[in-house]
Specification:
By secondary structure, the chain is of the alpha+beta class. It contains six helices and ten strands, in the order E-H-E-E-H-E-E-H-E-E-E-H-H-E-E-H. The longest helix is centred in the last third of the chain and has 31 residues, at 233-263.
């Protein structure tokens, strides 16, 4: 069977992360279940399988990418027919026989939607600028090795939100959420020397460290490859509809919560 890549989108809230785990629902576990029901594979995992990255519990994706040896009849709608929950495939690409969705990614981009109507945008931008470029981020990840990364990115104001975009060839665990949390600290009045201390060689642990920002507002937004993805229009329309329904449902819940808060 040919090696093929699939773009998948999901709302991270119902899942205990992307990677398969025993006894809990994960994105990868749901994908493998659907592929088994379609008789695409019957072992531990599909031949040639790899994914662009492993999002944490609660983190969503627009363009998570998986690749494996797949029959030509396996289209996004065919895969979606066996998926349940807020998880859909929406594009495919033919890939070389040795293609690896993890190792062959040029870069990955995340976007964090920080509700920050009263934040100091200028301080936030200055803080992020100090974190861009190549640094050893050992104080901003639980990882013990491979902590030197080169970050690119920026900040945009969208109404009540500050949208933080970060791009790199790869990310340490929790790095994006800890960077956002640190930027938020400095925008809220912490000194810029806080950043210098966390980027220094000396370990910063315990209460002096940085707690990751909550995962819900984070999206794996894009992954770059030397591939030509073809959008399946029917699957893309279904994906847009799914997320539009999620947005409306959350607006209604937010309004109900606002009523209770205002009425007490």
């Amino acid at each position: 069977m040919p090696r093929r890549a699939f773009r998948v989108a999901y709302d991270g809230r119902p899942y205990h992360g992307f990677q398969r785990q025993p006894d809990v629902t994960t994105v990868e576990g749901e994908l493998f279940g659907a592929l088994r029901r379609l008789d695409v594979f019957d072992g531990e995992k599909p031949d040639g399988y790899a994914a662009a990255g492993r999002t944490d519990a609660g983190v969503s994706a627009r363009a998570q990418t998986i690749a494996f040896d797949a029959p030509e009849w396996l289209t996004p709608p065919a895969l979606n027919g066996e998926l349940s929950g807020p998880l859909l495939a929406w594009a495919t690409a033919d890939a070389p026989a040795e293609f690896h969705a993890t190792h062959d990614a040029h870069w990955r981009a995340y976007r964090y939607f920080w509700l920050a109507d009263a934040a100091d945008d200028r301080r936030a931008r200055r803080a992020l600028d100090r974190l861009l470029g190549e640094h050893d981020f050992h104080n901003l990840t639980p990882d013990d090795e491979n902590t030197v990364r080169e970050l690119a990115g920026g900040i945009e104001r969208e109404g009540d939100f500050i949208v933080v975009t970060l791009r790199a060839s790869g990310f340490c665990r929790e790095l994006v959420r800890r960077v956002v949390a640190l930027v938020r600290e400095v925008a809220g009045g912490a000194g810029f020397d806080r950043i210098d201390r966390l980027l220094a060689a000396e370990p910063v642990e315990g209460p002096a460290g940085v707690t990751p920002a909550v995962p819900g507002p984070l999206v794996l937004d894009d992954v770059a490859y030397d591939l030509e993805f073809e959008v399946d229009e029917a699957a893309a329309a279904a994906t847009r509809e799914m997320f539009a329904e999620l947005r409306e449902g959350r607006r209604a819940r937010a309004r109900a919560a606002g009523h209770v808060a205002d009425a007490i």
